[in-house]
Amino acid sequence: MVVNGAVENALATVGAVLWCVQILPQIWKSWRAKSTTGLSPWLMFTWMISLWVLGIYNITQKLSIPLHIQPELCGFAPPPLDAFAASSYLIVVGMELLILLLATILNPIAYYRRRDEKVTEVIEEIETIDKIVSSKDYVANAEANINRPTDLDDAFAEWF
């Protein structure tokens, strides 16, 4: 395929302009009707034309695959709404939002609980080490006092 930069730039410019001005018919319709119900047919027509132009541009520029597919898929009329699929999707989205909410609430609580448990473990280890050291001191003092004569021993020896 011959690369033609001027055609590619023209397609990109036309597609971008159509994409940007596609909302103007909807604004005009909503302002005149003083209601936001429904979509303007001109909005849909402008969107369809911009999708074709931008789709061609994306393919000629060899952009990513989703950019190739998205304009072509969205440029056609959608099938009728499947209520079961929509409700299933909404349930999934709701559960994802619930997971994110619980993660933002429960992760800090778990962090502080684990931190407090570590502090408690360190304090218990220090107390255990202190008990061991104090018991060794007690045993060392007791062993030193076993062989040392006391005042009572001296008094008993003098009495005999």
Automatic annotation (TrEMBL):
This is Uncharacterized protein. Pfam families: PQ-loop. Its main location: membrane. It is a multi-pass membrane protein. It comes from the Eukaryota. It is found in: Membrane. Keywords: Membrane, Transmembrane, Transmembrane helix. The keyword Transmembrane helix applies. The chain crosses the membrane at residues 39-59, 86-106. InterPro entries: PQ-loop_rpt. GO terms for cellular component: membrane. It comes from Adineta steineri. The keyword Magnesium does not apply.
